[in-house]
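Incident review: delayed structure delivery

Summary: a single-chain prediction request sat in the queue longer than the usual turnaround. Root cause was a stuck worker, restarted by the on-call engineer. No data loss occurred. The affected request and its eventual output are reproduced below so the record is complete for anyone auditing the incident later.

Affected input:
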Amino acid sequence: MKITFQTKEESNQKQLEEFLSLSGAERISRFLNLMEQVSRFPTKYKKEKKDNFIIRLYKYEDLGK
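Output delivered after worker restart:
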């Protein structure tokens, strides 16, 4: 492990450059991985199960029945 000392601005610039060097697919992949990791953090929030957004797919023939 390497320890470096830098200012916040230098650190932010380095992170930005590393991020911009990734391809579009790599950026999306890293973002999705980050969202998955964040969702594992324990919180006090209790998620209520609601059915307020449901997508149901039907065949056109089944709609008339």
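Verification: Helices lie at 8-20, 24-39.
Action items: add queue-age alerting; document worker restart procedure.
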